[in-house]
Each structure stands twice: as C-alpha cells, then as structure tokens.
Design brief:
homoheptamer, 273 residues, alpha+beta, Helix Hairpins, SH3 type barrels, Alpha-Beta Plaits, 3 domains, five-stranded antiparallel β-sheet, 5 helices, 19% strand, membrane (chains A, B, C, D, E, F, G), cell membrane (chains A, B, C, D, E, F, G), LSM_dom_sf (chains A, B, C, D, E, F, G)
C-alpha cells in the first residue's frame, strides 16, 4: 500500500533493507516448513485411509497424494512470492482484485464440489448406510457398491451402476436395517363368504410360515382392505428378513391362490354372465 | 499493512521490540485460555447432552468432543500465529485474500450443513414431533426413530428407514397428536332405497362401536356423498385413536358389507343385465 | 491496524497510556449499560407477549428470555474484549476475517430462519388468518391451531397436524371469511325433458332451503352445464355458511335424487339396451 | 481507525478536544434534524395515502406511522452514537463487522419482502388490474378484493379468499378487460348430415342472440372441429360481455340440444346396436 | 477516516480551512451540473421515446420523467451532503455500512426488476416479436398487445389479457413469421383399401385447395402414419397462411369426411358386430 | 481518502500542484488512448465478424459497433473524471459505495445476459449444431435458423419460430449428425404363427429396401418385443438417412400391412367373437 | 492510495524516482517471465493431452493453446500496467471498483462454465464412464461418444446426438459395467395350472440357455409375481452380457410363448365367453 518513506537518513536505509531481508528469509523458511508439514500430513492420511472402510486402492492413493502435494506446493510458493513482493513495496492491490474476481467465479463453481465432500463425510460419520446395504436415493435403488469422497455408487439388481454425487443425496431410504413386510392383497368375488375366506387364509399362511425360511413371524390376515363395485380385497402381511419381501410375496401369491381354489372360494371376476 | 518506521533512534527500537514481545506473549496467553475455556465448555455440553432427550451414546460423544477439541485448537493456534506474524510486521493481505476465497467456497458449500443444524434445533425446541410419533415428511411416512443434530430417521411400517437432513424438512404432518378419522364410502346400486340404507348403516355402526376398542365415538353416517351414473356413495366416518384408522376402516368395511347383504340392500353393480 | 508510534518522548507515553485506560473503562461501562438495557427490554417484551394473541405460555417465555439474555451478554462481552484488544494495539484483522467467513456461512444458513420470522410477523400484522380459521396452504387444508413465531400449525379434519414454517407460506386460501357455494351437478339421461327437469329442480331446492339451516339463499338452478355423448348435466348452486358446502351438498344430492325419481325423470344411464 | 497522535504539544491537545466537541455537537444536531424531517415526511405520506386508491384505513395508518417513526428514531440515534464514539477515537471495526454479518442475514431474509413491495408498486403503477377485476394468478382465479403493499387478496366465486404475496405474482391473466368468447362443441353422430346440421345451428344461434342480453354479436358456427371414430364435433363460438361465457354457454347448450332434437339431427351415441 | 492533524501552526489552519471551503464549493457546483445534465438527458430520452415503437403515451412519459428527475436529484444531493461531511472530517464509516446493508437488501429485491428491463430491451432490440404478432410464452398464447419496459401484454383469442414480466420470458414461440401447417389425421377402418383411400384423398385435397383462400400449396397426403389394433390413420398436411391452420383444418375435416363417405371408404369403427 | 498535508512550506505546495497537474494530464492522455484502441479493436472485430459463420448483417453490425463505442467512451470518461477528482483530493468513498450497490443490483440482473453470451460462444466454438441442423432443446424441435449472440432461433416443421436464450440451452439433441432409425412395431393376433410372420416380414422389408431411397441398410426384424394379453408385437427397425424416419416409417407401415394381409397373417384384434 | 509526500528535499526526490524506476523494471521483468512460463506450461499440457484418453485432435489443441496464450498475455500485461500506474501514484480505486462490479457480473455468469469444467475433470478422474460405454443421464440414454472439457456427447441407438454440459450431469447410470438382467413376465389365464406352468418354464429356459450366446447363467423362474382379477403373471429372469437384455428378452418371449402353446397352457385372456 505504500513504500519506504523518503525522508530517511542513510543508516536508516541500511537498517530498513536489513529488516526487509530478515522478513523475506522468514517468509521463505515458513513456506518450506508449511510444505514439509503438509507432506507429512498427507502421508499420514494416505496410510490411515488405506486401513479405513473407504477402501481406496494403492494406485489411486498415490495419484491423489501427488496431486495434493503439487497443489499445496504451488499455492504456498505463490503466496510466499506475493508476501515477498509485498515486503519489497509493490502495490499488489490490482493483482489481488483480479485474483479475487477469478477466485469468486471458481468459488461459486466449486461450491457443489465442497458440498459433495461435506455430505460424503457426514454419510460415513453418521453411518447412514454402508457398502452392501440396499438403499434408495430418489428413483435409484440398489446395493451400495462404494461410498466415495465425492460420489456414491449403487448397483441395481438388474446390473446398472448409478453414480450419484454425495451433495445430491437428499433423502436416503435404507432397506437393510430392519425386517421388511410383504403385503399381499387377495381379491375375492363380491359374493364370496368373507368370514370363511379369512379362516382359510389364516390356515394357509400358518402353513406357508412353517415351510418358508425368510418369514420371521406367522403372517397376519388384517381384514377387508377395500370394498370395490365388483370385488373386495383382503390384506395379508408377512414380516420377513430384510429385502426378502419380493420372494415371500411370490410364495404367498401362489400358495393362497391354490388353497382358495382347492376350497372353492371364488376369486375370479367373471364378466358378462 | 506497514512496519516499523525507520526514522527511529536506537532506544526507540529497543522500546519497540519490547512492546512487540509483550504483545506476542499476550496473544499466546489468550490463545491458551481460549482453548482451555473451549475444552471446559465442550465437557459441560457433553455431560448435559448425555442426560438430554437427544440420546447420543457415550462412544459417539467422545468422538465428537475430540473432533471439536482438535478443530478449535487448530483454529486458535492458526489465528494466534497469524496475529504474531502481524505483530512482527508481515503483510498478511495476500494470505488472507487467498483464505477468503477458499473460505467463501467452503462457506457456500457448508450453508446446507448450518441450515440442517439450525432447523434441527428448532424441531426439538418447538416440539414439532418426538421419538415414537408417526409423522410424514414429503412422501416419507413412518415412526420417528431418532431426531439427530443433522438428520432425522423415520422407520416406515414396512421396515425401511428414511434418513432426511433436517434442513430438507419443509412441512411436517404429525399423526400422533389427535384422534384420527376413518372414512368409509359405501357404494349402493343406483335404485337402492337411500333412507332405509342410512337407517341400516346407523344400526350397524352403533353395533360395531360397542364391540371395537379403538373407536372413541359412535361413528356418523354423513349422507349421500356422490351420485354417479350407475351407483351412489354414502359416507360414514368414525373417530378413532391416533393411527388406528386403517384397522377401524377394515372392520367397518367387513361389518357394513355383511349387514347390508343380510338386509338385502343392493351394493353390487351388475353389468350387462 | 497499527500501534503507538515509537518516536515518542516519555511524557507522551504516559499521556498515551492514560488515554488508552480511559477508553478501556469507557468500553467496559458502555458494555455493562448495553446488557442492562437489553435485559430490561427483554422483560418488557416478555410481559407484553404474555398479554398478546401469540399465547406463548409462561414456562416457554422464561426459557426464551434466559436464552436471549445469554446470547446478548456473550456477544456484548466478546465485542467489548475485541474493542479493548484493539485499543491495546493488536492487529485483529485475521481474527475478523476468520469470523467473517464463519459468519457468512451462518448468515446463509440462517436466512430461512429470518425469512420465517419476517413472514410470520406479516401474517399476524396483515391479519391473513387467525386461530380457528379454516385455511389451505399448498395441499395442506385444515383449521389453524397456532400461529407461531417460526411455524404455523394446521389441524386437518381427519386429525393430522400439519406444521409449516412461515417462510414456506406462499399462497394462503382462507375459507372462513365469506359464505361458501355448494355445487351439485345433476346428471340426466340424454333424452330427458330438460325444461321439466329444471322446473322440478327449482321446486326441490326451494323446499330444501326451507328445511336446512346452513343455506343462506334459495339455491339457483344455473342451466345445462355440459352436453356429453350419453348424458347431460344440470348445475345447481347453493350459497351456504362458511365451510358447510360439504354438508349442504350431501343433503341436496339425496333430496334431488329422491325428488326426480318420484317424478319420473330418468337420471340413470342404462347400458347395453 | 486511529486516534490522536501523541507527539502533540499541550495547546494542540486543547484545540483537538475543541474540534472533537464541535463535531459531536454537529452530529447531534444533524441527527435531530433527520428525525424531524423523517417525521414530517411520514405525516405527508400518511395524508397522501389516505386519499390514494390503496384504501388503507385510518387506524392502520397510525400503527404504521408510529412503527416507522420508532424505526427511524432508533436507527438515527444508533448511528449518531456510533459516529460520536468514532470521534472519541474508538476502533469500531469489530462492532461493524458483527453488525455486517447480522445485517447480511437479515438482508437475505428480507429480500422477498423488498421484492413484494417493489412488485406491488409496479402492479399499481402499470395498472395491471384493479379492485373488482376478475383475474387469475397461477391456479387462483377470482375477483380482486384488495391490492396491498405486500399481498393481493382475491375472492373466488365459491367464497374462498386467496392471499398472494405480490413478489409471487409472475403471470397475471385479466378477464375483465375485453369481451370473452363462449365455446360450445356440438357432438353429432358419425352418420349425421353435416351441412344440414350447420344450417340448423346457424338458425338457432341467431335466435338465441336475439333473446340473450350478454351476447354482443351473432355467434359463429366455425365448422367441423374434430372427426373422431364414432362421432364428430362442430364448434360454435359466441362473443359475450366479460366473464359471462359460462352463462352464455349454458344457454347455448340447452337451446342447441332442443333445436337439433326437434329437427331430428342425431346427437346421441348409441352403443351396442 | 481522519481529520486535520493537530500539530499544525496557525497559518496552516487558515490554509486548511480555505482548502476545505474550496472543495465544498466544488462539490456543490458539480452536484448542480450533474442534476442539470441528467434533466437534459431525460428530456431528450422522453422526446426520442415518443417517436419510438414503444408507443408510450404522453401522460405516462411525464409521470416517469418527473419520477426519474426526483430520484436523481435526491440521490445527487444526498451524495453531495455526504461528500461535504467527509471534507469536514466526519467518520462516515458506520453510516455507509448501514446504508450498504440496506442497499444490499434492496439490491437483491430489485434484481428481478433490473432483469425485466434488460430482457425487455433485448426483446425489442432483437426483434423477437412485435405488437400484433401471435406468440406463445409458456402456456399463454395470444396476440401481442403491448411490449412494455417491464411487462408484455398478450391478448388470448378468448379475450383474456395475460401480463407477463419480461424477465420471466424464457422461450418465445412466434406463430406469425412463417406459413403454418394444418395437420389432419384421417382414420380408416382396419380393412379399408389403403391405396384407393390415398388416391381419393389426393383428389379431395386438390379440390379443396382450389376453393380455399388460405391454403398456399396443394396439400400433401403423407401416408400411413399409424397402424392401430382396429383402425389406421393417414396423415394429410396443408401449408396455409400464418395462424390459419385451425380454419383450414376444419374445412379439410368436413370435405374429406364427405368425400370418403360418398366414395364408400369405411372410416367409422363399428363396435360389437 | 485524504488530502494535502497542511504542514507544508510554500515551495512544496507549488511542487505538489505541479505533480497533480502532471498526473491529471497523464490520466487524460491514457483515457484518450484507451478509447482509440477500443475503437480500432471494435472495427477489427466487426470486419472479422462479417466474414464469420455468425452471419450478422451489415446494418446490425453498425448498430452494435456504435453502441459499444458509446458504452466504452462513457465508461472511460467517467472513470477518468473520478480519477482526476481523486487526485484533487476528494473523498469519493460515498460515491463509490452508492455506485457499488447500484452496480450489484445491475450485476445480479445482468448475470443471465452474461451467461447467454458465454454459452452462445461455446455453442459455436464446440460446434454443437449449425444453421440448418434439426435439433431439439427441451420440448422445442425444429431446424436451426440463426445462432445469435444471445438467442437461438429454431423453426419447427409446422412453421412456428422458437426463440430460446442461449443460457437456457441445457441439453441439445442433434438429429442431423448420424443416420436415424425408423422403428415399426407390428401387432399380431395372439394365435398368429410367429415364425411364419417373421419370414414374411423379412421378405417385405427387403423388398421395400430395394424400392426406397432413404433406407441405407436392409431393415432388421428384431423379434417378439412384447407378449400382451390379447396380441403380440414384432419389432422391425430400419436405418435411414437423418430425419427421414417419419417418411420411412409411413412406407413400412403401409407395405407391411398390405403384405401380411395378402399372406393371411391376422393382425386385427377381433373383439367379442 | 496516496503519493509522494511533498515535504521532501531534492536528493530524496531523486532517490524516490530511482526506487520507482527499479520497481517498474521489476514489474516488467516479472510480467515477461510469467508469460514465458505460462506458454511453456501450455505446451507441456497440450503434448500431455494429445496422449491422454481425452482424444482432442491436433487442430483443436492449437486453437485452444493460442486462445489461452492470448488470454494470459492480455491479463498479465493489463495487471502489469496497473501495477506500474500504482507505482507512479495514481489512485486506482475507482477503476478497480468499476472492474469489480463488471467482474462480479461476469463471475456470476461464468460460474456454470467453471462448474462444467470441474465436474468434467471429476468424471474423468473418478472414471465414472468412458468413451463407448452405454450410459443414461436424465432421460438421455446412449453410447458415450466424447467426454469433453465442457460437454459430454451421447449417441442414442436411434442416431440422435445428445450434448449435455458436464455441470448438468447429476446422476449417471452406467449400463456397461456389469451383466444385465432380462425380465420376462409371463401372463397365464386365471385357471391355468401354476405348478405345471413353472415346470414347463424351467424346461424351456434351460433349452433357450443352451442355444443362446448372450445368456451367462440358466435363467431363473422366480414365481407368481402378481395375481390379477383375470390373469396371473409368472416372472422369469435371465442374466445376460451387458446391454443384451433387449435381445435376450425378445428370444425368451418368442420361445416361451411357442413352448406353452405347444403344451396347452392357456396364456390368452378370453373375453366374454
């Protein structure tokens, strides 16, 4: 912002130059130390990471640590040069103003990157889900394959890999924490005998429970869920181990239909007669 | 921004250095005190929290308090070093400008984190819902499992766990505060006797009320809700204990159908003849 | 930003220290006064609030006033300490820059909080709706239970409580200000006699008006609203007291159907013959 | 930012204190004047407003003018105190930085308020709509009841009052500026005689025009709008006075149907034979 | 930021006061000139505008020019007063900081206003559409009635006026630039003779082209657009003058149906036999 | 920020005024040069542009170059005046603060303009599409008519012109780069002979390929795409020249239907018998 | 911000001018060096890029490197000129303030550009997808043709090229990483023998697996997926090589239908008898 005042006598100039030199050396030394310390920290983090559940492989670790090293080294050197120029008395205002505008644009552009990293950290820290869990984020459902620094990868059961930036993860639904419920709505003809149907349903679900591994409790027959104009629906629910509701539902569908057919309960809607 | 003026005599330099030394010591001492006070405060908060309804377990408390301790210690030390460098006369403008741009990007990226924490605080402070309540946030409905600092966990009745950042909670619907209403729309054939049907409905709902635990008042038969081209609907409502409307609705469905059948009121739409 | 110039003679140093001491005392005294005044203001506001329509209960008032007291005391003391340090000659730039970045993040995160409070104030000040009114905000309709500083609570007729932050209230529909209109569209068979139907409708609605409490004017038969391919619709509207359109509609549905049946106007669509 | 240099002789200190005193008095006087002028301006505005089309009632005017008076008085006094403290030589940087962060948060939160007021001003200034006009904003249609500083109130024909913040008004549709068009699509059986139907339609609409008040021109028969698989539609349009298209449409529906029936044009779709 | 140094001798004070007086006069004179020049510019712009295609009427011009004059006069005087106070040596930092926060809130609130004006300028400059053109913006279609500084008014053919802020105009569709295409999809029974139908269609469209004013080229029979399960569609297109596709389509509908009927091509879907 | 120190002797005042005069002249000269250079650059750019693929016509070039000239001249002169005032010693802080707030509002409002220009530049630079290509942006599909600095104009095949600001172009689909694929799904009755149908389809598409210009390869019969409850679909695809898939599809529709009819493969769904 | 103090003796002026000259030369030299170093770096990057998987062709590389060279040269020269002017003592505040507002607008407008580049870098670095992969972004599915600095080009199988800015890529679904699953839901008539159908399905899928190249495992018959009112569905899944699920599904469709037909399992829904 200003420079050496000119109303100085000669010995003062010498003293002044001496002071400046000392400060430049100080800046240089501090810059060296900062880079060294940063390198050490990176090494520690890389080693810690290799043991962490994030499972980043060796080769990628190296790439990242070199990248970060370079980034820090360039930044520190740049700042050191600017500090030294500042000591020599250059007015760096314009340079800084330019850098500020550029930095602002980059800062705006990079904010979603920062958000990705912060959210990713909290997903792991809060243990929202782990590798192997079945989760759903928006319309993307599947098994978690990797929780990365910036993105999460989910493999759907049909083989697609969904890659979602962590900052875009708003609501997570985790299917692997608790037992799930299979819901079967049994259609009956409008004039079917409801009470008898419920008795038969209770019989068949108890029988299915005996034979089926993934059902954890005797399924419940809840009652008449809906009375439509030509049929009615009775709801049956079965608690089963996580993510087995599809399989259990298919078994219940088949067994209930066969059992009701055997016992003469009309399920089919017959049109036109 | 500037440094020791050079037009100073020798004793003045000594005085100047003395002043600077005092200030550096002062900075150091204050930094120490700030860290100590912060540590004490964290300890207090951790103890207070362990008794609080937030129910954070011991192990996680420790993790968080160590994390916060480190964060504060690093920050205070960094600031102290910069203050001391400032006293020695280094122009720290460029350093600060760089940190500002970085800080801006982080600030932008972290704003949703801050919003999560603020909203989380108000959810608890305003007692919007508690652990165990049945609530709905957007399309996610279930029982509240945990109200955390940053996220709320809801367990749906089919076993999924929905994890929602607090800052994303815009509208909450709480189903556990008041009695709920079960709504049953009874379809009648177009040429059915409306008045007789209403009398019969009043009889059956009174009877159901006697026998059913979760209905809190005799259900009401409201009247002809809709006149369609081939059928009409009569609405029946029943006030029941919170979250029991599904169960009560199923009972009413079954009993009303059986009662009307018995008394010969036509409900079924017969097509084609 | 700078400190006492060193080219000063001894008495000047004494004078300088004296000046600084005076300023520090001044800062301390002002800080005390600000805290006292703030406490008084809080007390006044709490008392005023207890009489206000906001109906905040005693216990919560206390919690809030202690909270605000602490907040102000900490802030004022912090500022006072910084002002004093500034007098002693410490360069507080770095500290402030750091606080600025943190403050920015908090400011961004807190902006929706500020918006909630401002909007809440205007809802009350402009008398948009009051406790007990039936209103609709987005898809949430119900009776207003509480208009709070930050959120509004609406109880739907089926018993759910919707909690909506005030800043999210964009469009409000108030159903309790004026009389409402019940709309009944009467279906007629395609070959029905329109003119006779209108005469009969006028008779029946006049009769219903006599017997029904919540209709405020004789309902109007507007005319042929729609000519479809197999039926046509005649619209009847009835002005009724606020929020009674459902009840009035049900009565009109039943009475019109019975009256037209009695007088042999074909309403039913007969398919296939 | 700094204070009186200490290398001053005694008379200079006296002069300095004299100067400071003068400036403090100057600040005080200006603060008084600003408040007085503001009060006068408020009074003028209140009087002007009471005559303006905004129709704000007396009582509310008073509330607002007291509110604004207090706001200005507090602000001016606060600024004056800070200016005086600045003269005494206190470093107010930290105070201002804190106020800045708070102000930023409030500024962000208040921006929608400012937007409401600006848009409201332009709605009135550009005469987009007036009290009594029938308008539609998004899905809310009704008669304008009040155009306020911050919100617009619209009363729908079924009695609801929609309250919309001015800043949320993006597209306005005004139905009260021009004559409106009633559109009637007449269905004909697929094998009907198109040319004869058009002749008959022309006869009936001319007749209706004679008898009906709100139609401003003889309605036009536009032609075959659509050829479907089992019927075809002929479009008839009628220019009528603003917001009367519903009423005119109902009259045309009834008269056209009766006329075509009389003249044996098949409109009805006969299924199954 | 600072004031007159006190270590000054008497003649210097006189010189200092003299300098300040000169600067104050200079500020006053410049302020006068700026206001005068601004007034002249406004006058020029008003005159230029009255001749421009924006068609702003005289009365509104006056209102606006007085408004702008006042705005500029107040602003310039305010700035001049602040500059003069700055010369006298008052620390205006706090005042400016307060104004800055207020200005920020207004700036944020006013940004959509600025965007409206900028976009409006470009709509005119780029000649996107003119008064009288038929355009569509989002779901609003109609004839452009006025392109204003802030809003565009569109009159739909049914008489509504849509008022859209220019900044909300994202995509414009202009229907008045080129000839439009009328599309007629002719349904044929599944077992109709396709080749003969195409020959007949070519005959009828050539005949219609001869008789109809708004068709600019002989319409084309494109071929079998779709093969459904029970019918197939042949597409016919006709280039016609802008915005006449509705009228031309109605004529083609009627003529094609009559021609195919005459020549025994089955169009009607016959159900059930 | 400050002005000439008063503790100056007379010859120093003279020197000071001399320095200031020199600087004012320097500012004036630099301002002149900047304007001249800018004018030259504009001329060069206009000439370069007239040869560029942007095809801006002569008249518009002139308008724009005059506009830019004026803009630069006013800006440079304004800055020069402010620099000169700054040299004379006026405190321009308040002026700049005011301009900053105004500039901020304009900056925010103008950001979409800047984004339009940047995106427009990249569309041309990356050769995303050219004039004459058939592209789709959101729901707007048509032939590119003009790629402008701020907007892109697309003419749909029915004659509308869609005008889209470049900054709103998120995803572009270009139909003119590669050959397109015509897809024909042939419905067969449920009991049709699949293998024979596929043989016949292979025969007919080979025959069509011989006769049709725009098909580039023998079309492929892919197989049974879907088995519904009453019919099944066989998919046929044909690679054709860009944007000819509609035409080719119509030919395939007609020929396949006629060929299958001739060879007695049932396509028609027969209801009810 | 200020200039040479006037209370200087002659030799001091000389010294001052000497200092300034040295600094100007220093600025000039550093500017030269920065440009040279930047050029070298660009050359290195261009060479590195030509070997990289980004596959940017030679001609475009040259265009870009010249562009970047010019950009850097202009920027560095501009900054150097401003630094030199700053040394001569010009108050550049106003200039910088103006540039700041302009820069802010550009910064806002350019932020999506920055975001594109950052996201593009991470897509390549994280190996989300490569050229030749089949991916889906929003509704755009196809083969990746080019991953550019700013946009990604995807070619759909029907020949369209979708061009998507990298910053708009939120969720990527990669279809080329794992085997995919073909899903076939076989409809059976309601009274079909489920157990026998499952046995037959197991036979046919095993047979198809033998004959078909792209199926990697014997397909699984999962069970009764759904029981509808008139039919039921049995689900069969087949793991196949990536992106072959369409082809495999078509083969399974045809073979299953033929096999069930042969063995007399009713699949067809027969209406009305």
């Amino acid at each position: 912002m200003h420079w050496i005042r000119e109303h100085v006598s000669k010995p003062e100039i010498v003293a002044s130059i001496f002071w400046i030199a000392i400060k430049i050396i100080l800046i240089y030394v501090i810059a060296r130390i900062v880079i060294k310390v940063a390198d050490k920290t990176i090494d520690h983090m890389v080693i810690a990471r290799e043991k962490s559940p994030l499972k980043i492989d060796r080769r990628r670790s190296n790439t990242i640590s070199i990248l970060i090293h370079n980034l820090i080294a360039y930044t520190v050197n740049l700042v050191a040069i600017m500090l030294i120029l500042g000591q020599v008395g250059l007015n760096l205002g314009p340079l800084l103003a330019g850098a500020g505008v550029l930095g602002l644009a980059i800062g705006f552009g990079a904010q979603s990157l920062v958000k990705d990293v912060i959210t990713g950290f909290f997903i792991i820290f809060e243990d929202q889900f782990g590798v192997g869990d079945v989760i759903q984020i928006d319309q993307f459902k599947g098994t978690v394959e990797e929780i990365g620094i910036r993105v999460t990868r989910i493999k759907s059961w049909t083989g697609e890999v969904h890659i979602i930036p962590n900052g875009n993860i708003k609501q997570v639904t985790n299917f692997s924490t608790y037992n799930s419920i299979a819901i079967v709505d049994v259609s009956l003809a409008y004039d079917a005998d409801i009470d008898r149907a419920i008795v038969l349903l209770n019989e068949v679900v108890a029988e299915v429970y005996e034979r089926t591994e993934n059902i954890v409790k005797v399924p419940q027959v809840l009652g008449v869920q809906m009375v439509g104009t030509t049929d009615l629906k009775i709801r049956v629910i079965a608690e089963c181990t996580p993510n087995k509701q599809g399989e259990v539902g298919r078994i219940l569908n088949a067994e209930i239909k066969k059992y009701l057919d055997t016992h003469g309960i009309k399920q089919e809607k017959v049109e036109g007669n």
